[in-house]
């Protein structure tokens, strides 16, 4: 079995997820992990599946991209297997007035403490900017990280929270 990383991006329209999933199912590809979102009217999906060779999947997805509305890429990847968490799970939420560098500064604090961002989403609604990130932090550093996050948030003029995540809910 081949493990494939697939991305599909383009102008949003109803039915993209169903179209992609049907193509993969017809090929016998098993969709194992995926994420999909709409970003200001644009569709973006990334998924991992197991199944046929990358060239076969790319050829089958080409029909969806034929009208120029979607771009699909397929890449063979090496399976990681079951990877144990690198730390304790937390959720970081940031909100405040939009300005350049919020994501860069806040995630740098996490990385400098040995943390890893495992999922991140941002939204801009009017002037309000919101960041929601799932992170793994090394054991015992959360209080220190939270202090540093608060200092960085104050410099940026935003608010931040960091709370333990229930791993069963992630």
Q: Could you explain the architecture of this structure?
A:
- It is a single chain.
- The radius of gyration is 19 Å and the shape is flat.
- It contains 4 helices and 8 strands; from the N terminus they run βαββαββαββαβ.
- It has a 4-stranded antiparallel sheet with strand order 2-3-1-4, with helices on one face. A 4-stranded antiparallel sheet has the order 6-7-5-8, covered by helices on one side.
- It is of the alpha+beta class and 170 residues long.
- The chain has helices at 16-27, 54-65, 102-112, 142-156, and strands at residues 2-11, 30-39, 42-51, 70-77, 88-97, 116-125, 128-137, 158-164.
- β6 (116-125) and β7 (128-137) form a beta hairpin.
Number of β-strand runs = 8
Strand residue percentage: 35-45%
Placed side by side, the strands forming the largest sheet appear as 2-3-1-4
Alpha-carbon distance between the two ends: 27 Å
| Helix/strand order | EHEEHEEHEEHE
User: What is the helix tally?
Assistant: 4
Can you give the mean pLDDT?
Answer: 92
Q: Provide the structure class.
A: alpha+beta
| Low-confidence runs of at least 5 consecutive residues | none
Categorize the overall geometry. Answer: flat
Helical residue percent band: 25-40%
What is the CA-based Rg, rounded? 19 Å
Largest sheet: 4 strands, antiparallel
